[in-house]
Structures are given as structure tokens and as C-alpha cells.
Amino acid sequence: MVGLLHALQGNMPSKHELAEESIRLEQDVLKEKVGSQDQTSVAHGGLNHIVFQPSGDISVRPVTLRTERRQELRQHLMLCYTGIKRTASEVASSYVEDMEARRRQLRIMKDLVEESLAVLGGSGSLAPFGELLHEAWVAKRAMSQVVTNSKVEAIYQTACRAGALGGKLLGAGGGGLHAVVCGARPPSGSQSGVGPVDSRALRFRIQRQPGDLLQSRKILQPRGGRPGGKVHRGLS
User: Which domain holds residue 225?
Assistant: First the structure.
């Protein structure tokens, strides 16, 4: 949305500027109790190692994978929509007020990021990556009782019985999307019994760039300018 508004004005902000403005709007203007990883991830696009400094600065380092390794990762990932709608701010509110009491879980999750990067950058099996995601999910689950629920647990347990090596909810938790790492390549376009009947697998790809906004001659004409066929990079 931020990228779209900039495109309407004929502006092309940097990835860093898009992320910063999105974070400011959500946290300072709308007063939502949300993190900063989603805005940063979408603004920069691709696979990144994002570090949030105590000073408030955010550093983004692209994770470079060989083409074969990227394809292997894509083939072993499955994204499942839980069917549960939730507001990230409401879920995050259950644990952000007292992060000091959750320092242990945060330290575990930080260490798991480093281990995961080593696995992805290697040439061995992706099985350890699935196991690390499971450990991250266990740590995240301990952050608050509302991070998970019976339906989310049912989806995850069904996925594990079907051969998933690990996985976790994306975002704040409580619902939304669940990512799992499969032991074998999941069948294309099929749920393959991963979740309950009212959950569904979604097709996705790992983008190398942030979302593209194509300028329409009618609705994305820059103010005071002429319509054209330029491509504006921004938040889709």
C-alpha cells in the first residue's frame, strides 16, 4: 500500500525508505503493537538475513543460495492457510509488553537463525532445516497462550504424520499461514492430507525482488504527469 501511494505520486523510494515508512505508519500512527520484520521483508524482497539492532537500526543482508539449492528449498516447502483470521496486533499484544520475561525464547530463536543459515548455505540434506523450524515453533509457542490453538496444532500434527520434518506459523501467530518443510517433494496442487478439510495448500515462490507495481494508464498516472508504461518497485 505504501509503495502504491508513492507510485501514484510518481515517486520511487528506496527499499529502506519503504520499510521505514511502513513501520512508522503501523507502529506510530496507527498505534498497532506489531513487529518490523514483515514490512522489512516485503520492502526488500527475496531471502534475507534481517538483524534488528538494540539501537533501532535494521540491517538487511541478502542470503545468496545456489540456483539448485534455492529450487530444492522451494520443492520441500509447503504453505498452508489455516483458515483462521486474526489481527497480528492482538496476538502480539499478549507478549510484547513483557519481552524481558521472554528473553530465553528470544535467544533460542536468534541462535536458530544462525544455524538455519548454515544449513541453507551448505550442500547437505534440508532435514536439519525442518528440525530447526520445529524448535523455533516450540520456542514461539512458549511466548504466549494465544500464539497457537487447537486447530493450528491439528494442522501441524497432521503435517508431521504425513512426513513433514518441521514448520511454524508465519507472522505473530494465532492463525494465518503455516509453513512446513516436507521430507519429500509435496505433490503439486494438492493438500496431500497435510491439514484438516478446511485448510488448503497455497502456491508460492521465493521472490528475488520486492513486489512490482505496474503503472496503469488510468489509475497510476503520476500527479501532473503523463500516463506511461514505467514499472515502479514497491510494496504490492
Answer: 1-46+207-236
In a domain, 152, yes or no: yes
In this predicted structure, what is the pLDDT of residue 212?
Answer: 54
Scan for cell 509457542, then name that residue: 141
Decide: 194 and 180 in contact? Cβ < 8 Å: yes
| Structure confidence at residue 186 (pLDDT) | 59
178 and 222 fall within a common domain? no
Domain membership of residue 61 (yes or no) is no
164/227 same-domain check: no
pLDDT tens by residue, 87-143? 777 777 767 677 777 788 888 999 999 999 999 999 999 999 999 999 999 998 888
In a domain, residue 58? The reply is no
pLDDT in tens, 54-92: 888 999 999 999 999 999 998 899 888 888 887 777 777
Taking each helix axis from N to C end, the angle separating 37-44 and 15-24, rounded to the nearest 10 degrees, works out to: 150
Cα distance between residue 232 and residue 92, in whole Å: 32
Domain presence at residue 157: yes
DSSP string, 160-172: HHTTEEEEEE-TT
Q: Which three cell numbers stand for residue 8?
A: 501514484
